[in-house]
Design goal:
Blueprint: H1 2-10, H2 16-25, H3 32-42
Helix pairs in contact: 2-3
């Protein structure tokens, strides 16, 4: 659990699959289900972009374009 915590603080974006690869480089061979259970017990999870990130913020008001369909006379 200490190595999982170490690797999670170094790279918080890796999940269970890459965590077992990092633990294997340290000489610890564990399965994915055990790593998943230990990460759940410690209350840590991988950080990743969540869905609907490109939705518009509707709290901001829509500003109309006021110069549309207006005739502008320029002096000669």
């Amino acid at each position: 659990m200490a190595r999982i915590d170490f690797w999670h603080t170094e790279m918080p974006f890796i999940g269970t699959r890459k965590m077992i690869v990092q633990l294997a480089t340290d000489g610890i061979t564990v399965g994915r289900k055990l790593v998943r259970a230990l990460m759940a017990e410690m209350g840590i999870h991988a950080l990743y972009p969540k869905k609907n990130l490109s939705k518009r913020n509707f709290k901001e008001s829509i500003v109309p374009y006021l110069l549309r369909n207006k005739l502008v006379f320029l002096p000669n």
